[in-house]
Please model this.
Amino acid sequence: MTDVSRDELKGRVISLKELVNYQDGTVSSRMIVNRSAGSITLFSFDADEGLSEHTAPYDAVVTILDGECEVWLSGETHVMKEGDTIIFPANAPHALSAITPFKMMLIMIRGEQ
Model:
């Protein structure tokens, strides 16, 4: 299903974790919704890959779709696995690292804070 366009996803029942593939030694992403109010992006991370500490000006919701990762949020460490969700508040420092290959959905909520 990774070859289906963003518009073709509308109105269909989909498996989110099937929309982005693992790639050896890297992070892959696929945006499935992009609007002025926010976006939804799917990511896959190979083992030992991650995102370094950063902040975002908007709230972000991360749901793990497959695998396991470690998340750092404002100095606290959380181990997350399939089905777990965390909300990163706007401007809070956060980072993540793959324990195993994992996939996640990132929902960015834009707008007034």
